[in-house]
Amino acid sequence: AMEFFHSIFGWSNSVRNFFLQRVERSILGKHRPANPTSSTNNSNNLSSVTDNQVFCPIVPLLENNNHNNKRKREEHDNITQSLLVLPSTSQNDAPTPLLSVGDIDLFLNEQCRSLDAALSGLGSVFPSSHLVKLVTSAEASLALLTKVTITTFRNYQQCIGYVEEMLRKQVVQAIGKEVTPHDFSTFMTHHQQRIFAPEYTPQPFCFAIRRPNHYPDGLITIECTTNNNNNNNNNH
Asked: How far apart (Å, rounded) are the C-alpha atoms in residues 190 and 109?
């Protein structure tokens, strides 16, 4: 999903930048071939098209299970025609913190309503798409839709990061501390000593460097430095 949103984000961003940079600034801003009359009103500029009035349905919301099950059963019995209809197959489903189907319907319907209102509002500001102009309501609608797509991707990315960070904090709270590489290495060393027989227990990598008829010239070891102290510990 993230890879898909990345590709859509890149395409939407390139299309929006083309109209803002190439068409509006480079062509209309410098040469103004389609609109030779100077205008002080900037409300019909593509750069003024924003999605501030468009509702984004991607939000990191979770529900309390104690107040969620009864409403889900009521929504299952009163499903109306909407943009998304995914009724539960069983009224005895396991509790979940996810939003109900009714809430998802409300979010998506509100996005459609606000998007339609924003698109309709562009028709009263920009020239009709039937006119021979570089920037009409069609180009403005495309600028708005690409902006909505960009905002949707950013919200999705932020929601994923928010949920992952929430889960990480819960894991840290359950463990009682943040596990470091040193903690994991210590655990694995202790675990290996329990599951391996003494003769098969991994030994530290440490060997003497020798030459025939000579005293050992030195040692070769694999060591790691921990943050807890300045001493080097041999890896197993």
From this structure: 56
User: Cα–Cα distance between 111 and 85 in angstroms, integer?
Assistant: 16
- 232/181 Cα distance (integer angstroms): 14
Q: For 12-63, give the DSSP string.
A: HHHHHHIIIIIIIIIIITTT-SS--S-----TTSGGG---TTSPP-------
pLDDT single digits (tens) 198-216: 787 777 787 888 888 777 7
Mean pLDDT of 128-147: 85
Residue 129: CB partners within 8 Å, gap ≥ 6?
Answer: 136, 137, 138
d(CA 164, CA 136): 43
Q: What would the pLDDT profile of 214-232 be if each residue is shown by its tens digit?
A: 777 787 888 776 655 444 4
Q: Which tokens sit at 178?
A: 């943040």
Long-range contacts of 156-160 (CB under 8 A, 24+ apart): 156/1, 156/5, 156/58, 157/2, 157/5, 158/60, 159/58, 159/59, 159/60, 160/2
* pLDDT over 60 (residue 131): yes
Contact 60, 163 (CB under 8 A): yes
Top-confidence residue, 199 or 70? 199
Query: Model pTM?
Result: 0.61
CA distance 164 to 182: 23
